[in-house]
Amino acid sequence: MKDQWITPNRLFDGRTLSTGKALRINDGCVADIDDAPKDAIPVRGLLSPGFVDLQVNGGGGVQLNATPTVDGLGAIAAAHRRFGTVAVLPTVITDTPDVIDRAADAAIAAKGQQGILGLHIEGPHIAMARRGTHAPDKIRPMDARTMNTVARLRAADVGVMITVAPEATTPEQIAQLGQMGAVVSLGHTDASFEMMEAAFAAGARCATHLFNAMSPMTGRAPGAVGAVINSTAYSGIICDGHHVADQMIALAIRARPVPERMFLVSDAMATVGGPDHFDLYGQTIRLKDGRLINDEGNLAGAHVTQADGVWRLVRRVGLSLSDALSMATSIPADCIGQPAFGGLDGRRIEDLILLDDDMKIAVDLGSLLSGMVD
């Protein structure tokens, strides 16, 4: 592919939205960003880094817990790529030690595979009272088996996020996980404000799907929700119109003491890019009116993409487009310690997206630029 400039209607670089800018593409990668030269090829739409999602349980009919293999990881990543999410942290939820170890083995084997950032282990070291759809018979306190699994992943230089509840994990264990280089995220917890603060002080630096499966914030007891909002930790949040009210998302974002700490997660299940049902723990989870419901009537993950979340952040929550896009690109990339995935510099064209006004993929950039060859 020859050296060529392209200029979209609008350009988002991971932080800033601009017009009149162009990308120089060389050998299939972004080589420069500057004012558009006269010979730049115009492209219609908003050009952005592809979305980053740090909580992806499944996609394309595949659920990681049921298929903890390299092929399973690849199928999930491929399903979300169709909707503009080019980097994912596949997520294995509460399960037996063997299932979690198989997911870890797959993540190690898949290291470097397109779009796979590592592994998110969500549970099993969580609070029974806030388990959500997680299987109660598989919940347990933090143990040596999981510590060894995280150590093995980090020794292979695989990115790890692990969701734990302070009730099920000691401050010493949180500190040890952090020292390994894992991102410790607090979630599925009934902890008090004080317990949460102690966990953050020990080294936890993120929270998992704010508001959901957390002790709520009240006037005299800030709970886990209040602790997260008042902290400087990163926090994921689901924006699908079902998990959290739009008004509460807006309130939480406004209330954070430092900017650029809230990021969008999908918590997506196998139905994204797949059929309208799947099996989890022997139950059939079905999609009904946009919600995924288990046999207990509880929400069981989400049927939403990052593109859907960005659209809702702008159209329903009231964020600026640049802030919403940051929540799906640079902020989660920074949280996981892989900032290159949140920007444009050096990115391959297949990891860039061109969006229409509804945050849908407007055109495949690879196909658009396929004619730019010597």
Work out the helicity level: 25-40%
Average pLDDT figure: 95
**Strand coverage percent:** 25-35%
Uncertain regions spanning at least 5 consecutive residues: none
Tell me the overall shape.
globular
The count of helical stretches stands at: 11
Q: What distance lies between the first and last C-alpha atoms, to the nearest angstrom?
A: 6 Å
Question: What is the secondary structure topology, with strand pairs?
Answer:
Layout: E1 4-12, E2 17-18, E3 21-26, E4 29-35, E5 41-49, E6 51-56, E7 58-59, E8 62-63, H1 70-81, E9 85-93, H2 97-109, E10 118-122, H3 144-155, E11 159-164, H4 171-180, E12 183-186, H5 193-202, E13 206-207, H6 223-230, E14 234-238, H7 246-255, E15 262-265, E16 277-280, E17 283-288, E18 291-293, H8 306-317, H9 321-327, H10 330-335, E19 352-355, E20 361-363, H11 365-368
Parallel strand pairs: 1-5, 6-9, 9-10, 10-11, 11-12, 12-13, 13-14, 14-15
Antiparallel strand pairs: 1-2, 1-3, 3-4, 5-19, 7-8, 16-17, 17-18, 19-20
